[in-house]
Structures are given as structure tokens and as C-alpha cells.
């Protein structure tokens, strides 16, 4: 059935009947929504912003009224939808009949306003331009604030930006032409689908609103994602160690171990064959091992960086040496795993352990003196809220970490997906990177606070004040060959901060590469894409600005350049190794069992 114009600009009787039929479905959805909101998991209010008690009382009163008088809720929704869509149809008709035109639009380009109606329809154009004027005025007001602590001003700017992004007209049905057009075309079905999507997301996250970014049904871990062949050859309570099957007849003698971050799953480096760094490394003739970290529950509350080092890094190195019969290995640390790798290397230096031949760091921070975009989340009140949360639950739930990272890029990772899912009623896209992004993990209570307080807040590693396993750590201890890869637009580990940390390392053989793009796309950048280039400069004596001014730009992926660097430190060619040995039989096929564990709190 299609929408018919009655001649008066109102919706046809047939359309109103269809809308009424759809609205009847709201009753069932309302009951589900009421249930999930009244049974939502609780956490420390400091993590949600100000005046949570007031918000909670208002929400409780609203839902109590809805429970006792559901017809009122349906009537309100029906009236809202009907008036909104009737107004939209009337505006379209007026535009057609009277030849109304939008005023000249000289505002900035913004991909949120891609629909032509934002430029040509007088109503939407007015709304857009007024929003842009208001946004600029708010941000200018923040910039003009004087006599304010820089950290507080940065925090003010962050929360002001959050308000600006939240109030975008694209986030509201009445001022989103894409959503209105689809609602009219589907006679309200897109809105019903959107409400269903919203309730599912709330139900799947115990009442926490975490927008689903990808279609989870489109991926099967081990089948069409994380599918490189290999075996789990070691397992303890902290990790599974995967050894990948060789794809060449000969391999380089020195094995390679990748330590991925334990904030997400390891398979960011093995999404699919076309962009799998795992497959590429194996195809270059390396015996590759990767650590798949456990997804901790409350029983891990007392696990700290000590256990990650002893039962993770040092154990993995020892087991790989036993399996391969080599005295040394090469290692990679990605993000927080790179930070912890630097601490492990300091400990090993002080213990006289020379098991590591070379170390590569992907987007790793060791100097936290500039907290960058994370500054709003590293104030005492927020960290105190984290402390209360982990004390109560034993872990820092993955949903909190996901929300924190998402709101650093709220338009891309919160509002745009929410619009597609909740207002357009669409199924999330089958996008492997976004699927991985939503597959988060918990953090053990002790480890989370060590990282946030000791490293992020206190910058104790770069200051030489970090103590771990009886050792006082120093970046100067890292005197082995080092290659560091940073990303130009990385908002999690800014390249200038990564550069500053590498400068403090004691190695006389340091290579620093900066690739285009961000924290993930810059690393997962296969040569076949020919998409992002990279910068090199052997002179690290100046600051990051001086380094970049003297850097040479290279087209294409950094992978081959790093591969050539690593090959020089990987020994001679030997017959290819199959996974495991007599004392390390295969426990299961890759990608193992830990990767499938969902967060539990």
C-alpha cells in the first residue's frame, strides 16, 4: 500500500489505519522496554554524568504512569507520529506548489547533512543553518574562557562538544528528512522496526544503551572471520597461545609472537584473508604465534599487571622458545599490550633475560604526560567512579570501555549508527571491523586501576616511578632493536605521544614509522589496498614536529618496510614448522576457545 494524498495535505485514511495497526504493536514493545529499564544493572553514578538521581526519579515517574495508563503512551506516540509526518507532507506540498526555495547556504560541509533537502528545502535548511550557528557560538564561548585551568577547560570543551553533537537535528525524527521519508514510505513500519532494535540493544546490555554497530549474524568466528589455520598449543588462566600453520616450505628461524591488547579480541589482526596481518606475516615465511587473552570475570578481580607480565608475556616467550627450540624470539605489542611489553622488557633487562631479539610497538603509549582526548575521563571524580565500579563488580565491564571510546567519536560511533538502527529501522551492516569493535572484554579490577591511576594519571612509567614485580621500571632499559609504528590520526594513542615515549627508550637501533589513518585502519593496512601511505625519518633527535618536517612520505602500506626490518633480525631459513611439538600437543583449532567468551560481570 502506498501513501495517498487526500488533497488537503493530510495523510489518507488508509495510511492512518496502517499507522494505527503499527502503533498497536507498541504495547508489546512498551512492556519489554519497561521491563528492561526497571531491571537494568546498576553501576556507579559518577560514570554517567551529573544529577543521575534526578534523572532516575523522572524516568521512574514516567514509566509508572505508562504502566498504569498504557493507552496514554500510545495516544501520545500516535499523535506525535501523525502530526510530524503530516507536517512533513504539508511542507513538501507547499514547496512544490509555491516554489519556495532555501536561502543561500554558506555553512561548512558536514556529512551528517548529505540529504539534498538540507540545502534545498527551506524548512530543513533553516534548521541546519541555525544548528550550525548555535554550535559555533557554543564552541566559541568555550574558546573565549579565560583564567581557567587548562585541564578543566579541555574537559569543558569535551562536554560542550558532546552537547553540540547530541543536539544535531539529524538525531531527532521531526528534523531528519531521511527518517521522515522512510517513515512515510513504509507507513510507520521503519519506526516500529527502530523501536524493536532499541529494545533489543537494551535487553542485550542489561539496560545499558550500547548501539549495535554490526550485524552479529553475518559473522562466525573461525569461519568467515579469524579463520587463519592454526592450533592452540598452550593455555593457562590468562591466555591461549595460538601457533599458525605455515604457508611456505621454509620459514625464518626466529619465531614471532604478537601480544594484542586485552581490551578487545585479538582477531583485529585476522579479520579476513584480504586484510589479515596474520596471514600476511605467515605468507612472508615466519613462524607466528599470537596470544588470545582470557575475557575475565569477577574471579579475576585481584589480577594485575604483574599476572599479565608473569603468566602472560614471560610464560608465552618461554613456551614458544621450547616449541621452536630457539633461544630468542621477536615480539610485537599492540596498544596497551605494547605499553605492558615495554614494562616486561625493562624487567627482563634487570633480570638479565635476553630472550627477546627485537620488539615492535603498534600504536603504543609509554609517555602519558599529555592525556589528550582522554583527559575528561582521567579526572579524580571519574576515576573514583571507576574504582567504586570495579570494587563492586570485580571487573571494569566492557560496556563502560566501549562507551568511553565511542563517545570520543560520537557522531561516527554513536549517533550515526543509532539513527540507522532506531530511526530508520535498519539492520546494522555486515562490517567485520565494526563486528570486532563490538566484541569487547572486561578488565580485571586491579589491573584497570593500575593502568588508569599509575600510567594514565600518574605517568609513572615515563617518570621512572613505576614498580612491578620488585623492579623499578625504566624506558632506558629497552636497549634492544626497536621498531615503533604510530598512526597519523590516532585519537587513542596520538602519534606525537608515541614518538615521545620511543625517544626515551635506551635502544641505539630505533626505527619510527608513522602511517596515515587511525588506530585501527592505520595498522590494518594491507599492501593490496594501496590506500594509506607512511612517513619515515631516521633522525629522532628533535621533537615530533621536527621529525615530521624532515620525514619522507612513501606511497602504500608500511607492512613491507617493517617486514624487511624484521627479516634482518629473524635468522636463517629452515624447514617449516608445524604447530606444537611432543610436549605441546594441539589443544584445539585456531582461533581457540577464549576468543568466543562473552563478557560476564
From TrEMBL:
UniProt xrefs under InterPro entries: AB_hydrolase_1, AB_hydrolase_fold, PHA/PHB_synthase, PHA_synth_I, PhaC_N
Keyword Transmembrane: no
Coiled coil: 185-212
Gene3D superfamilies xref list: alpha/beta hydrolase
Record's keyword terms, sorted: Acyltransferase, Coiled coil, Cytoplasm, Transferase
Domain AB hydrolase-1: 282-526
Localization of this protein: Cytoplasm
Boundaries of every Poly-beta-hydroxybutyrate polymerase N-terminal domain copy: 110-281
PANTHER family in alphabetical order: POLY(3-HYDROXYALKANOATE) POLYMERASE SUBUNIT PHAC, POLY-3-HYDROXYBUTYRATE SYNTHASE
Name by which UniProt lists this protein: Class I poly(R)-hydroxyalkanoic acid synthase
Source taxonomy: Bacteria, Pseudomonadati, Pseudomonadota, Alphaproteobacteria, Rhodobacterales
Amino acid at each position: 500500500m502506498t501513501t495517498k494524498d487526500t488533497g488537503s495535505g493530510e495523510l489518507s485514511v488508509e495510511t492512518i489505519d496502517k499507522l494505527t495497526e503499527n502503533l498497536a504493536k507498541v504495547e508489546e514493545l512498551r512492556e519489554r522496554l519497561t521491563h528492561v529499564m526497571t531491571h537494568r544493572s546498576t553501576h556507579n553514578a559518577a560514570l554517567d554524568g551529573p544529577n543521575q538521581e534526578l534523572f532516575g526519579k523522572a524516568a521512574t515517574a514516567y514509566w509508572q504512569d505508562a504502566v498504569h495508563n498504557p493507552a496514554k503512551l500510545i495516544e501520545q506516540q500516535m499523535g506525535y507520529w501523525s502530526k510530524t509526518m503530516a507536517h512533513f507532507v504539508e511542507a513538501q506540498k507547499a514547496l512544490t506548489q509555491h516554489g519556495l526555495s532555501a536561502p543561500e547556504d554558506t555553512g561548512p560541509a558536514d556529512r551528517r547533512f548529505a540529504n539534498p533537502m538540507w540545502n534545498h528545502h527551506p524548512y530543513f535548511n533553516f534548521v541546519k543553518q541555525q544548528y550550525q550557528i548555535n554550535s559555533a557560538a557554543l564552541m566559541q564561548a568555550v574558546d573565549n574562557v579565560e583564567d581557567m585551568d587548562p585541564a578543566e577547560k579541555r574537559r569543558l570543551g569535551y562536554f560542550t562538544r558532546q552537547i553540540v553533537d547530541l543536539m544535531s537535528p539529524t538525531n531527532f525524527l521531526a528534523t531528519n528528512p531521511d527518517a521522515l521519508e522512510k517513515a512515510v514510505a513504509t507507513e510507520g513500519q521503519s519506526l516500529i522496526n527502530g523501536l524493536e532494535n532499541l529494545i533489543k540493544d537494551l535487553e542485550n546490555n542489561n539496560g545499558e544503551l550500547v548501539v549495535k554497530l554490526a550485524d552479529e549474524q553475518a559473522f562466525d568466528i573461525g569461519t568467515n572471520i579469524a579463520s587463519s589455520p592454526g592450533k592452540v598449543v598452550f593455555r593457562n588462566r590468562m591466555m591461549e597461545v595460538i601457533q599458525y600453520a605455515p604457508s611456505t616450505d621454509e620459514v625464518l628461524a626466529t619465531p614471532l609472537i604478537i601480544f594484542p591488547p586485552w581490551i578487545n579480541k585479538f582477531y583485529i589482526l585476522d579479520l579476513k584473508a584480504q586484510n589479515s596481518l596474520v596471514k600476511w606475516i605467515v605468507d612472508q615465511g615466519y613462524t607466528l604465534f599470537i596470544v588470545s587473552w582470557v575475557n575475565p570475570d569477577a574471579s579475576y578481580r585481584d589480577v594485575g599487571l604483574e599476572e599479565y607480565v608473569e603468566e602472560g608475556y614471560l610464560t608465552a616467550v618461554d613456551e614458544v622458545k621450547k616449541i621452536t627450540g630457539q633461544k630468542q624470539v621477536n615480539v610485537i605489542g599492540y596498544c596497551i599490550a605494547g605499553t605492558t611489553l615495554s614494562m616486561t622488557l625493562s624487567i627482563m633487562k634487570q633480570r638479565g633475560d635476553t630472550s627477546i631479539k627485537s620488539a615492535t610497538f603498534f600504536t603504543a603509549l609509554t609517555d602519558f604526560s599529555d592525556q589528550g582526548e582522554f583527559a575528561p575521563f582521567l579526572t579524580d571524580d571519574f576515576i573514583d567512579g571507576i574504582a567504586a565500579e570495579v570494587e563492586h563488580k570485580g571487573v571494569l565491564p566492557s560496556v563502560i570501555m566501549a562507551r568511553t571510546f565511542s563517545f570520543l567519536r560520537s557522531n561516527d560511533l554513536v549517533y550515526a549508527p543509532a539513527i540507522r538502527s532506531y530511526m530508520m529501522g535498519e539492520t546494522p551492516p555486515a562490517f567485520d571491523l565494526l563486528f570486532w569493535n563490538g566484541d569487547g572484554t572486561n578488565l580485571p579490577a586491579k589491573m584497570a586501576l593500575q593502568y588508569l591511576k599509575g600510567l594514565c594519571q600518574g605517568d609513572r612509567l615515563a617518570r621512572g616511578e613505576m614498580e612491578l614485580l620488585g623492579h623499578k621500571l625504566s624506558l632506558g632499559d629497552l636497549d634492544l632493536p626497536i621498531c615503533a609504528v604510530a598512526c597519523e590520526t590516532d585519537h587513542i594513542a596520538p602519534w606525537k605521544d608515541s614518538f615521545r615515549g620511543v625517544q626515551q627508550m635506551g635502544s641505539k637501533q630505533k626505527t619510527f614509522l608513522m602511517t596515515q589513518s587511525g588506530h585501527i585502519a592505520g595498522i590494518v593496512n594491507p599492501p593490496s589496498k594501496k590506500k594509506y601511505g607512511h612517513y619515515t625519518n631516521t633522525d629522532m633527535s628533535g621533537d615530533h614536529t621536527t621529525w615530521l618536517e624532515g620525514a619522507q612520505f612513501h606511497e602504500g602500506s608500511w607492512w613491507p618496510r617493517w617486514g624487511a626490518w624484521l627479516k634482518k633480525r629473524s635468522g636463517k631459513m629452515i624447514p617449516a614448522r608445524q604447530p606444537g611439538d611432543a610436549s605441546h600437543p594441539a589443544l584445539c583449532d585456531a582461533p581457540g576457545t577464549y576468543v568466543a567468551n562473552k563478557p560476564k560481570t
